[in-house]
User: Which sequence fits this backbone?
């Protein structure tokens, strides 16, 4: 019985260490002000000139734009390149933490390349 408990605790510790390392790596790759390229489905937001791109893994980035006419590419699979700005994450609830896994931040769009006229 002690052996089973020891193996279970060891597995949990390994999982926590691996998750922590992945979180640190993610935070380093999506640092604010970093140039970033994202491929996904371009969507129209709820207000005028509001757009978002959603990657295949479900992560969504809000898009700010002054250089590219995004409206021509709504519903298309595109690759955008721009400057990433992370969402503020201090003092949020557990519910926000679940949402944060989906909404990554904002990208100031510099360029857009259409990959496909459909999001598939």
Assistant:
């Amino acid at each position: 019985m002690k052996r089973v408990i020891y193996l279970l605790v060891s597995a949990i510790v390994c999982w926590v260490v691996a998750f922590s390392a992945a979180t640190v790596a993610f935070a380093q790759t999506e640092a604010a002000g970093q140039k970033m390229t994202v491929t996904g489905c371009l969507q129209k937001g709820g207000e005028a000139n509001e757009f978002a791109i959603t990657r295949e893994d479900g992560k969504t980035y809000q898009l700010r734009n002054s250089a590219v006419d995004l409206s021509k590419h709504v519903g298309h699979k595109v690759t955008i390149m721009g400057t990433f700005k992370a969402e503020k994450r201090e003092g949020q609830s557990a519910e926000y933490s679940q949402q944060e896994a989906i909404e990554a931040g904002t990208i100031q769009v510099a360029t857009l390349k259409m990959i496909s006229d459909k999001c598939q």
